[in-house]
């Protein structure tokens, strides 16, 4: 029965967020895409620095080795992006990709694969977290799954935009997002069967996931926001960034209160 709950929760977490991301953004995407870059910057940084990293550092793993993992992760995503840039050559205005207007083509969406790798690792970890929560207590499982699904939604919207921005079609962007979402189901199954032995590696996987979010936010998204803009647009950027951070903080709060009730 517990395995069934884990499968339903992780499947919902992986795919529901993609479906919601698609339905939320397909119609209004071209109008609000630059706002959503600000929003996803806030969500990615908030998720990494306020939720995922603290969780890793609360474990018994040594802080020194976790920081080393963070550094290795940042360098890995830097090199991954370098390889990706060489593979793609340069983007040109007439490269027949349906880019959304208003982006600097060289800045836009180089983090496509970095986001997918990081998101898959993150979703896999989420699956393990959900499994561990359900194995501990049914109520904790439900609260944890709900919080994870809630924070996946704005993040999947962000990932979806990064992928569209990288020149992928909507269909492909959704397909890749759904595939990375299914990593949560895999994590749930692994978590159910081998949650004990994996616990030592878990903090390091969380740190690698964080490093991808930090890298994409700092190297890909923030440069898109760093243009001289009218005051009104600058304030809108800051406001959307704040909304992204607030969403993350509310979810972290609900996660902690959920943990509190379980204990």
TrEMBL record:
<protein>
    <submittedName>
        <fullName>ZIP zinc transporter</fullName>
    </submittedName>
</protein>
<keyword id="KW-1133">Transmembrane helix</keyword>
<dbReference type="GO" id="GO:0005385">
    <property type="term" value="F:zinc ion transmembrane transporter activity"/>
</dbReference>
<dbReference type="GO" id="GO:0071578">
    <property type="term" value="P:zinc ion import across plasma membrane"/>
</dbReference>
<dbReference type="InterPro" id="IPR050799">
    <property type="entry name" value="ZIP_Transporter"/>
</dbReference>
<keyword id="KW-0812">Transmembrane</keyword>
<dbReference type="GO" id="GO:0140410">
    <property type="term" value="F:monoatomic cation:bicarbonate symporter activity"/>
</dbReference>
<keyword id="KW-0472">Membrane</keyword>
<dbReference type="InterPro" id="IPR003689">
    <property type="entry name" value="ZIP"/>
</dbReference>
<dbReference type="Pfam" id="PF02535">
    <property type="entry name" value="Zip"/>
</dbReference>
<dbReference type="GO" id="GO:0005886">
    <property type="term" value="C:plasma membrane"/>
</dbReference>
<dbReference type="GO" id="GO:0030003">
    <property type="term" value="P:intracellular monoatomic cation homeostasis"/>
</dbReference>
